[in-house]
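Extended Data, panel c. Modelled sequence:
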Amino acid sequence: MTENVSELEMRRKKLLFRGSHRGTKENDILMGRFMDKHLATLSEEQLDRFETLINEVPDADFFKWATGKEQAPEQYDTDVLHMIQDLSNA
């Protein structure tokens, strides 16, 4: 790793760790698929929305929303959640 790692790259690395240690194996898998496909290309605003999902949403709720078993409340029903849902239904 170089000393010139950008702030955005460091943020992605932190989110990669936190997203892959959710607490349940099912959520780790869902988040892992999403991060493998999209994390490197998310905008700062999308990283904000992803971070909100990680920090604010309990595992059980996240799993229901990500798999489409329940509709997410409006503040969490974002493009990022939709990308996760697309991968969970693939």
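The radius of gyration is 13 Å. This feature is highlighted in the accompanying rendering.
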